[in-house]
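ESCALATION

Customer reports they have been waiting on this structure for their group meeting. Please prioritize. Original submission:
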Amino acid sequence: MRVLICDDHPVYRRGLLALLAELDDVEVVGEAATGEEAVALVDRVMPDVVMMDVHLPGVNGVEATRRILSRHPAVGVLVLTMFEDDRYLASALRAGARGYLVKGADHDEILRALTSVARGEVLLGQAVSSRLAAALGDPAAADAFPELTSREREVLELVSGGLSNHQIAARLFLSPKTVRNNVSVIMAKLGAETRAEAIARARDAGVGDVEN
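Update from on-call: job pushed to the front of the queue and completed.
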């Protein structure tokens, strides 16, 4: 089983590497510290499973999962979580992740999770099943981009609806400079290099059905 690890904490990655090294039929084929690195590595090494942390600098685990599965739908993504925010976990599952793994899981749990995800199964443990059900049923948890603040999401909806910065400023009673700064932050969080790219990602996620 070919596994790629994506986590921004080197100490945790080393510990996970040591654990996986003791498992039969598991080969770690790559390590990534950011979502961008994970996407690029999957293209090169084609793992069976990606162990993906949700809290990453730059492109987070939710967006990285979405990008990986849009290119390689057969790859299994196993979310690494400490349950800091159920919205991230729920959003990762919506993006196509097949299951979760609690950080600090033992050998048997890791092997069971990897095997299930590699087979195409969805693994939801009892420890978080009720919390996931609540998060998935909560409209506030349904945000396509949970890394955005409520104001940033509001601006993104207007941007993807075709409004200019000045129009958004007038609509939200903000200064054009504030809107421009919000757009820059939004693009950085989405990993978008251009405004058009941010709009495309928002519309793909169903964000931006706005009438001028």
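Sent to customer with the following note: Residues 2 and 123 are 18 Å apart (CA to CA).
Escalation resolved.
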